[in-house]
Design brief:
CATH architecture: Orthogonal Bundle
Shape: globular
CATH topology: Non-ribosomal Peptide Synthetase Peptidyl Carrier Protein, Chain A
Order of helices and strands: HHHHH
Largest sheet: none
Distance between the termini: 20 Å
CATH class: Mainly Alpha
CATH superfamily: ACP-like
Radius of gyration: 14 Å
Number of strands: 0
Number of helices: 5
Helix content: 40-55%
């Protein structure tokens, strides 16, 4: 997932035209909105469009968006899950109902710290 994290950070900087931010300065678990990177609702809309255009994935509800866009790591996890046909992946730290999918995380996986 390291390559995907790097790619998403590069796309964030490019898509949102973050002139004062380098992709490597964005922490994997740094909040994207509010205190972290400081994105706003317009940026969120642009991120939704970028995910659809570049990865072919959709945010299916207003409730899902804030969870997916909490950090770059969670965006990458969402993309990976979508690419894998919405199957569970070890270490996601998310219940299946939280993401709105029928799969469950693998037993014994260690969830990451989430905001």
């Amino acid at each position: 997932m390291t390559d995907l994290l790097k790619e998403i950070k590069e796309k964030l900087v490019e898509t949102l035209k973050l002139a004062d931010v380098q992709p490597e300065e964005i922490g994997d678990d740094e909040p994207l909105f509010g205190e972290g990177l400081g994105l706003d609702s317009i940026d969120g809309f642009e991120l939704v469009v970028m995910l659809q255009r570049d990865y072919g994935v959709k945010i299916g509800s207003k409730e899902l968006g804030p969870r997916v866009f909490a950090s770059v790591r969670l965006v990458a996890d969402f993309v990976e899950r979508s690419r894998a046909g919405k199957t569970a992946r070890a270490g996601c730290g998310c219940s299946s109902s939280e993401w709105g999918w029928s799969a469950s995380p693998e037993p014994g996986s260690t969830p990451p710290v989430r905001p």
